[in-house]
């Protein structure tokens, strides 16, 4: 969308279907160029001045239609489309898609196997908490996971509400094999801030880089 005009994605914005399709086509070309098999289909914001409840139905209808179109297009390229709930308590009060429950209901209505949930634990904790049960409940829908500590949105080992060693063990027990995206703002130097990852590898008996000490 037009970021200068305050847009943050278009998939659920009524009247912007043509621009959504144009943007999707461009995103597919970029994804093919870099070999990325997943594209985040951003829902967008409730139109300025509109009442969220009053436009919710029209926005959901638009979202479902656009997601079906996107899924069919992405299937031709063997790609996955992702939808991400973004909290409207801190990050973006106007964003349309806010909770994993809302996302799961929409994905069920869309009914396409190549559309998945992009679950950012930062947003999920702020909106709903109950992370263990939510990860277990929505696990079949998850196509990508992102992490950041709450509330500062810094490294996982920074002070905050979330116990990431426990969460990582839970993901292992669920046999999650996808990527975990580090969508946080480092408090200082990026490499220094990755100390949490080195500590995690060591706790799992791995060398830096994720290789097994036994293998070495």
TrEMBL record:
Domain of life: Eukaryota
Keywords: Isomerase
Alphabetized GO MF terms: hydroxypyruvate isomerase activity
Positions of the Xylose isomerase-like TIM barrel domain: 9-199
GO terms of biological process kind: glyoxylate metabolic process
Alphabetized Gene3D superfamilies for the sequence: Divalent-metal-dependent TIM barrel enzymes (3.20.20.150)
Pfam families: AP_endonuc_2
Protein name: HYI isomerase
Gene that produces this protein: Hyi
């Amino acid at each position: 969308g037009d970021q200068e005009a305050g847009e943050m994605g278009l998939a659920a914005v009524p009247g912007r279907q043509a621009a959504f399709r144009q943007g999707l086509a461009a995103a597919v070309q970029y994804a093919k160029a870099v070999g990325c098999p997943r594209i985040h289909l951003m829902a967008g914001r409730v139109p300025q001045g509109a009442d969220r409840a009053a436009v919710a139905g029209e926005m959901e209808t638009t979202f479902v239609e656009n997601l079906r179109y996107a899924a069919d297009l992405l299937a031709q390229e063997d790609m996955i489309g992702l939808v991400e709930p973004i909290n409207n308590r801190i990050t973006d009060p106007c964003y349309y898609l806010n909770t994993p429950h809302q996302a799961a209901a929409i994905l069920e209505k869309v009914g396409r196997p190549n559309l998945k949930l992009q679950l950012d634990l930062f947003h999920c904790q702020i909106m709903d908490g109950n992370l263990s049960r939510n990860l277990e409940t929505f696990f079949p829908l998850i196509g990508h996971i992102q992490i950041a500590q709450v509330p500062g949105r810094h490294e996982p080992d920074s002070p905050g509400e979330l116990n990431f060693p426990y969460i990582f063990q839970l993901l292992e027990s669920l046999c999650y094999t996808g990527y975990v995206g580090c969508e946080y703002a480092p408090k200082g130097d990026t490499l220094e801030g990755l100390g949490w990852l080195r500590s995690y590898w060591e706790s799992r008996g791995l060398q830096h880089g994720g290789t097994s000490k036994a293998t070495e």
